[in-house]
Amino acid sequence: MPRQGVAALRVFLPLAVLGVLAGSGGAQAPKTIAQRDISFVPRTVSIKVGEQVVFRNDDPFGHNVYSPAQENIFDIGLQEPGTETPVTFSVPGEFTIQCRIHPKMRAKVTVTP
Ligand SMILES: [Cu+2]
Asked: Distance between CA 1 and CA 8 in Å, rounded?
């Protein structure tokens, strides 16, 4: 019996941590911006501060999504086809999202307080 309890905790704790990172209270799934045919789809997304945007690579080659802004700065690095990467936006404002490999790719994330 005690062993089972420990095993349950091991499963539960990582999930609890993920819940905290995801902002916890949200029943809503995070909004997704796909990378498809060397474009962001959709090109604009609005979220509330503290929420996530999931960047998903639908192309059969790599992308490198990043934000050049001073705030909410991030760089996903090379993102393999078929993978998703969540990014939390903790500062309100309008943020341009770009791809290092394809400079013409542009999206905008609006983060409201
Ligand atoms: Cu790209």
From this structure: 11
Q: Tell me how far the alpha carbon of residue 57 lies from the centroid of ligand 1, in angstroms.
A: 9
Q: How far is the CA of 81 from the centre of ligand 1 (A)?
A: 11
pTM of full prediction above 0.70: yes
Q: How far is 81 from 59, CA to CA, in rounded Å? A: 6
What pLDDT tens digit does each residue of the chain (113 aa) get? 445 544 444 544 444 444 444 445 555 789 999 999 999 999 999 999 999 999 999 999 999 999 988 888 899 999 999 999 999 999 999 999 999 999 999 999 999 99
